[in-house]
Design goal:
57% helix, 9 strands, five-stranded mixed sheet, elongated
Length: 689
C-alpha cells in the first residue's frame, strides 16, 4: 500500500502519498477557507480569482502560470492585461480537485489517495500541467501514482473506478477506466489460493463470518479457502457502464461463464429491486460456483463481517429503491448484452424475471427477442410462478399468452436443432461436454415432457381468465407434439378449468376444446372424474368409458397370453392356476383399478336403464294410440248397422212380393200363353231392381 511504502521514480520521492513541487515560488503557510472562498495564507495580496461554481479561490498569477498551460494562455492571451477573474465551471473534479492542484502549484504537499487521484489527474490534464512547463509536473506524478500504486491494489482499483463516474468523458479519454477495468479483471481471474489483497466478501449462511485477507498477512491465505465468488460484492458497487467494462475484460481473460453469469445475477439483485429473490442467488451460487471449490465456512468469530471496501465505497451508492425507470431500462439492456452465450450461464428463472421487467419498461424489441431466445434454450428449467407474466397492454388478457407461445416455439426450434446435430459444438468445460453427451435424444424427450407438464400447469392457471379466447388456449395446448405427453391428466385438468370458467360455450365449442385431449392417455382417476363431469360433451364421456373398457380388455388378453406362454415354457407358472374368469382377474388387480371399472360399469348400466325407460314409454304411448283408434272405430260402427238393416228390409220385402207373384202365375197359367209367362218375371225383376 502507498501508506507503508516509499518509491523513487526518476529521482522523485513519494512518501505517504504526499506530493510536493521541487520549486517554491511563494512562501505560504497553506490555504484557509472562509465560507465559500479559499485564501492563501501569505502577506502578498492575491491578484487573480478563480471561480469554480460557487467556490472562489483568491490566488496569485505567477505560481499558476508557471505550471498550468491553460491558465497561462487565459491570462496572457487576452488583450486586457489587468485580468483578475477566471471562471472554470467546466473543470473536471470540481473545487476539491482544483484545491489540490493549486496547493501543488504553491509547493504545498498534496496527499493523493485512491479517492481523489482520478479527479486530480483529470484536473491536471484540463489545466495542462505538463512536463513542458516544469519537470515532474502534476500530470507525471498522478500518472505514476495510478500506475504503480492504484493499479497494483484491488481495493484502490475499485475505488478509483467508482470515482470515475463523475468524471466522464475525461476519465475515459485518459484511459483511467480501461486500465482500472483490466486491473480488476486480471485480479478477479487470478487463482483464489494466491490472493493477498483485501476484498469484501458476503457472509456465508451457517457461518459466523467470511474470511478477510490482508496484504500484510500472507500467511492468512493458508488458513482457509477463498470462495470463487469473492469479487462479486466489490464489483457490484460499480455503475452499469463500468460494470460492463469489467465483465467484458473478464471475458477476454477467459473466466468460466458460470462465474460471469453468477456475477451478473448478483449485480442485478442489487440494482434491480424485486427482480430476483435471495434464495435464487444462493441456489445459483451453490450450483454454478461451488462445483470446483467448497464454500468457505472455516472462519470463526462473532457477528457478521463487513469489509473495508464495502464500508468506504458502497456507502456512497444511491439507494437502489430510488433508481428511476430510465436507469433501470439502461441496466437491463446492458445486462442482456453481456450475458454469456453459453447455455446455463444464468438460471432460467433469472431470465424470465429479467424478461418481465424488460417488457414492463419497454426495452428495445431486439433485446427482448434475444432474451426470449435465451429463455427458449433452457425452457425446461422454468417454473410456473416465473412464467405467469402479466399482459401490460390494457383491455386484454390477464397473462401474456402470446409471449409463452413464442418461448415455446423457440424451445421447439432449439430441440429440433439439437436433434438434427446431436454432437453440437464442444464447450470449454469438461462437465459441460459430459452433460451435452449425456443428453442425446432421450434427454431431449425428457425436456419435452417437462415442458409439457409446465404448459399444462400454465394452461390450468390461465384458464380461469374469462377473457382468454378458445383459439389461444387450443393453439398453445396443441403446440407440443403428441409424444411430449405420456399422460393427459394435466391437459384434462386445464380443459375442465376452462369449461368451468366459460359456462356459455356452445356444444360445438366444447367438442372443439376436448379434441386437444386424448382419452386413451387419461389415468383411472381422471377417467372417473370425466365420467361424472357434466361439463364435458356426452360423446367425450362415452369415449372415456370406451377407452377404459379397451384397456381392461387388453389387460385381460395380455395377462392370458403371458400365463399361456409361461405354461408352455414350463416355468414356475405351471404350478400356478391360470386366471380363468374375468372376475378372478379383476380380483387380482389394484383396488383403484377395480373402483374405476366398477364406476364405469355403473355408468354404463345407468345409460342402459335410461334407454329401457324410453322404450317402455314408447310402448305405452303406442298402446294408448291403439285404444283411441278402437274407440273411434266403435263410434263410427252404429251408422253402418242402420244402413244394412234398411237394405235387408228391402230384400225381405222383395222376396215376399216375388213369392206372391209366382203363386198368382201358377193359378192363372192356363189363361196365359208361355211367352207371356216368361216375360212377366223379367219385368218384376226390373221393377224391383
Amino acid at each position: 500500500m502507498w501508506d507503508s511504502e516509499t518509491e523513487s521514480l526518476g529521482g522523485r520521492e513519494y512518501a505517504n502519498g504526499a506530493l510536493a513541487s521541487a520549486k517554491h515560488s511563494l512562501e505560504t503557510d497553506g490555504f484557509e477557507q472562509r465560507g465559500q472562498s479559499w485564501l492563501v495564507a501569505t502577506d502578498i495580496p492575491s491578484d487573480v480569482m478563480v471561480q469554480i461554481g460557487e467556490v472562489s479561490f483568491h490566488l496569485h498569477k505567477y505560481p499558476l502560470i508557471s505550471r498550468c498551460g491553460r491558465l497561462n494562455r487565459i491570462i496572457y492571451g487576452t488583450h486586457d492585461g489587468e485580468l483578475n477573474k477566471i471562471i472554470l465551471d467546466d473543470l473536471p473534479g470540481g473545487p476539491e480537485s482544483f484545491e489540490l492542484a493549486a496547493k501543488f502549484c504553491y509547493g504545498i504537499a498534496v496527499d493523493l489517495t485512491a479517492s481523489n487521484i482520478s479527479g486530480v489527474r483529470c484536473t491536471a490534464e484540463y489545466l495542462e500541467m505538463t512536463e513542458d512547463l516544469e519537470e515532474g509536473n502534476l500530470i507525471f506524478k498522478t500518472e505514476a501514482f495510478l500506475s504503480y500504486v492504484v493499479l497494483s491494489s484491488w481495493r484502490d482499483s475499485i475505488v478509483v473506478l467508482k470515482s470515475c463516474e463523475k468524471l466522464s468523458p475525461w476519465a475515459e479519454n485518459l484511459q483511467i477506466v480501461r486500465r482500472c477495468s483490466e486491473s480488476i479483471a486480471w485480479k478477479a481471474c487470478a487463482n483464489p489460493k494466491g490472493i493477498r489483497w483485501n476484498y469484501t466478501g458476503k457472509p456465508i449462511k451457517g457461518s459466523g463470518s467470511s474470511p478477510k485477507w490482508n496484504e500484510s498477512s500472507p500467511s492468512r491465505a493458508g488458513q482457509g479457502q477463498v470462495p470463487p465468488d469473492w469479487w462479486f460484492e466489490d464489483v457490484s458497487i460499480l455503475r452499469i457502464d463500468h460494470f460492463v467494462r469489467v465483465i467484458t475484460a473478464i471475458k477476454v481473460k477467459g473466466m468460466r461463464f458460470e462465474l460471469i453469469g453468477a456475477s451478473i445475477m448478483h449485480y442485478a439483485s442489487k440494482w434491480l429491486p424485486g427482480l430476483i429473490k435471495d434464495e435464487l442467488i444462493s441456489n445459483s451460487s451453490s450450483e454454478n460456483i461451488s462445483r470446483e471449490t467448497s464454500s468457505s465456512s472455516s472462519s470463526s468469530g462473532g457477528g457478521s463481517w463487513k469489509g473495508r471496501l464495502h464500508m468506504v465505497v458502497a456507502g456512497n451508492k444511491d439507494d437502489p429503491e430510488m433508481v428511476k425507470a430510465k436507469d433501470q431500462r439502461m441496466i437491463i439492456e446492458s445486462l442482456i448484452s453481456i450475458i454469456p452465450p453459453q447455455k446455463d450461464s444464468v438460471s432460467c428463472s433469472f431470465l424470465l424475471r429479467l424478461l418481465r421487467m424488460a417488457i414492463m419498461l419497454k426495452v428495445a424489441p431486439a433485446l427482448v427477442t434475444e432474451l426470449e431466445k435465451r429463455v427458449g434454450m433452457q425452457f425446461e428449467q422454468a417454473n410456473l410462478a416465473d412464467l405467469l407474466i402479466p399482459c401490460y397492454n390494457r383491455g386484454e388478457m390477464m397473462y401474456d399468452v402470446d409471449l409463452v407461445q413464442r418461448l415455446l416455439e423457440h424451445f421447439l426450434v432449439q430441440e429440433q436443432t439439437e436433434c438434427a446435430s446431436p454432437t453440437g459444438q464442444p464447450l470449454i468445460l469438461d462437465k459441460s461436454l459430459y452433460e451435452e453427451s449425456q443428453r442425446g435424444p432421450g434427454g431431449a424427450t425428457n425436456a419435452k415432457m417437462r415442458v409439457a407438464r409446465l404448459i399444462d400447469s400454465y394452461l390450468t392457471e390461465i384458464a380461469k381468465d374469462r377473457s382468454l379466447s378458445l383459439t389461444k388456449f387450443q393453439v398453445l395446448a396443441e403446440a407440443l407434439p403428441e409424444s411430449a405427453r405420456t399422460c393427459d391428466d394435466g391437459l384434462y385438468r386445464a380443459i375442465d378449468s376452462y369449461l368451468k370458467a366459460h359456462p356459455t360455450l356452445s356444444e360445438h365449442e366444447r367438442k372443439r376444446m376436448c379434441r386437444v385431449m386424448d382419452c386413451q392417455k387419461l389415468s383411472i382417476d381422471a377417467c372417473m372424474h370425466a365420467a361424472q363431469n357434466e361439463r364435458l360433451p356426452l360423446r367425450v364421456v362415452v369415449q372415456v368409458l370406451f377407452s377404459e373398457q379397451v384397456k381392461i380388455s387388453n389387460a385381460i388378453a395380455s395377462s392370458s397370453l403371458k400365463d399361456a406362454a409361461a405354461a408352455a415354457t414350463g416355468g414356475e407358472s405351471r404350478y400356478q392356476p391360470m386366471v380363468s374368469t374375468r372376475k378372478t382377474l379383476l380380483e387380482g388387480t389394484p383396488q383403484s383399478f377395480q373402483e374405476g371399472w366398477a364406476a364405469a360399469k355403473k355408468d354404463i348400466n345407468t345409460l342402459k336403464f335410461e334407454l329401457e325407460t324410453v322404450k317402455t314409454k314408447y310402448l305405452e304411448l303406442q298402446n294408448e294410440m291403439e285404444t283411441l283408434q278402437r274407440q273411434f272405430d266403435k263410434m263410427a260402427k252404429p251408422k253402418q248397422h242402420s244402413s244394412s238393416a234398411w237394405s235387408n228390409g228391402w230384400k225381405k220385402l222383395s222376396r215376399f212380393a216375388k213369392m206372391s207373384h209366382m203363386e198368382t202365375q201358377d193359378s192363372g197359367s192356363d189363361q196365359h200363353g208361355p211367352d207371356q209367362t216368361r216375360k212377366t218375371p223379367r219385368r218384376w225383376r226390373n221393377s224391383i231392381s
